[in-house]
Amino acid sequence: MTYQQILDEAIGAPPPPAIDLDQIIGRETRRARRRRTGAYAMSAAAVLAVTVGGGLVVTGGPTATGPVIAGSPGTSVAEQPPEARVRTAMLAALDRAAPGLRWLPGGERENNMAEWSGPAVAEPSWPVNRFSHLSASGWIGAGVAVRGDIRARLSIEISRPKAGQPAEPVDCRGPERACGTSLGPNGERIRVTELEALYKAPGQPIIRPGDRTVEVFRPDGTRVRVDAMSRSEDFLLTAAEMTAIALDPAISLP
């Protein structure tokens, strides 16, 4: 399933070449707020030109859940609701692979990279949502992470294809700026890609964000995807760190 197909399923007819991502995401955000489900999507701002032809995953919709708050201190992981278990596993994987990340409070709700400002804090701002579309269903968590001078939208998605859907080829079909595939320690198939992107916000200079994705396809059909898009050319995480996160067995479907 390509990213373009996922976008088509989420918003209907294929978008024109110049995608107004702010309009799409704004519409989805307003709809989510009306339904009090907190659905959201990874976004760029005024103009985002990606040479691979629309690398966007839209999540949420009628089946999305609202932001997740972890269980009370006395609640064991097994007793937490599914959303909280997914959130706990994702944040633990991040802490193991990339300790010391700080977070922009509420940054995941801000689509304009220029607004990723203000002091970072240790407490993760990391809402988790459930999603379902025609080809797959699962969970996605996201936040704006800070590491030194680098700020980036970071997301982790875990999903499984629905019955009858063909397995996604794990190869480098281009024209990514960089792409590589490998095998994991337990038979996983791994794909690491870097996208060539341009970002332009009103009144701001053009940015070529560091945009990297790591996907892990497990033998049971589960896919874990880790995305990080910086507001600068520097990457938030190394490919090795992102791969370690995606391979973490604690990240699983509840």
Tell me what the structure shows.
This protein is α+β, with helices and mostly antiparallel strands. The chain has one domain. It is 19% helix and 26% strand. The protein is built from four helices and ten strands. The strands form two sheets. Strands 2, 3, 4, 5, 6, 7, 9 and 10 form an eight-stranded antiparallel sheet that branches. Strand 3 and strand 4 (136-147) form a beta hairpin. The longest helix has 16 residues, at 82-97. The radius of gyration is 17 Å and the shape is globular. The two termini are 22 Å apart. Residues 1-73 have low confidence and may be disordered. The chain crosses the membrane at residues 37-58. Keywords: Membrane, Transmembrane, Transmembrane helix.
Please tag this protein with its features.
single chain; 254 residues; alpha+beta; 8-stranded antiparallel sheet; two-stranded antiparallel sheet; globular; disordered N terminus; membrane
Give me the secondary-structure topology.
Blueprint: H1 3-11, H2 21-35, E1 47-50, H3 82-97, E2 102-103, E3 128-132, E4 136-147, E5 150-161, E6 178-183, E7 189-194, E8 197-200, E9 211-217, E10 223-230, H4 239-247
Helix pairs in contact: 3-4
Number of domains: 1
Apparent shape: globular
Round the mean pLDDT to the nearest integer and report it. 75
Give the biggest beta sheet: 8 strands, antiparallel
Treating each run of at least 4 consecutive H or I residues as one helix, how many helices?
4
Supply the helix-strand structural class.
alpha+beta
The radius of gyration is: 17 Å
Proportion of beta-strand residues: 25-35%
Keywords: Membrane, Transmembrane, Transmembrane helix
